[in-house]
Prior knowledge:
CATH architecture: Sandwich
Protein name: Phytanoyl-CoA dioxygenase (PhyH)
Number of helices: 8
Mean pLDDT: 93
Radius of gyration: 18 Å
CATH superfamily: q2cbj1_9rhob like domain
Helix content: 25-40%
Strand content: 5-15%
Organism: Saltatorellus ferox
Strand order of the largest sheet: 1-5-3-7-2-8
Number of strands: 8
Low-confidence stretches: none
Structural class: alpha+beta
Amino acid sequence: MTTASTGRPLIERRPRTTKSDELLDQLYAGEISLSSGTDSARTLARDAMEAVRAAFADVGDPALAQYELSNEDFFARVKTLRRAFYIEPFWRERVIATIVAAGLDPERTAYDPLKLRVVQSGGARNPAAAPVFQAHRDVWYSHPSCLVTWWIALHDAGEAETFTFYPHYLERPAPNDSERFDYRDWVKDGPDLKIGWQDIEAGRKAVFPSLTGEIESSPEAELGFRPGEGDELLFAGAHLHRTLAHESGRTRFSVDFRVIDTVHAAEGIGAPLVDARCLGSAVADYLPLSGVR
């Protein structure tokens, strides 16, 4: 395994060759899969990056737009993109094609739509963005233990621009405040919080579950990764992970969506669920793939 200059081991890019049922079992057991994207994933990444470029066409390179625009203007453009990616049928079709290309059973797979992630260089200095950089498990947001997070790189990125995993905490509780999170409150005013950052002050007002104390870790115990454009990263939503605060001088753009096996969700099959105390359930709001061919 390659080791970064920080001492953090890097996840190696490997072909994804296992059958879908075996893939889910491996992910539930803690494997983190980084692979060159399928044709469908690369098409999704290409189209998404083209949409990002179009949104910032008047200022040139989107990765440098944070220096050309006011924070309000930058946020407004990203907000529009996020809503489109999450709601419009075109992007939902791209997500479905990516899931089907991976071989997951469409009769028992459901998904939460596409989300655009935007991490500015120096973004951690903005107090309103603090939740972006807090260590968390995705299952703390009322998702089932079979949750799989599907992350796709829109461009090449350095290890310091992505996020880090704490795999030694997959089966180990971490101090957290997930009991503060109630999915019913999250969606009572519509999908804006699910879409992500539709309100510039959401980071100050909404409940984002996170760590409440120290965890035992070291660079050698963590896992990072260095993706290329169109790469797919799949991992269990039960993994503890954290977006890194970076000072690369460029904004990082990526997309992700979430999938569940509906049979596994009903039967409680999945990764270890060791410390989630959140209320409510997101399962009913997942969209089915049944009938997709």
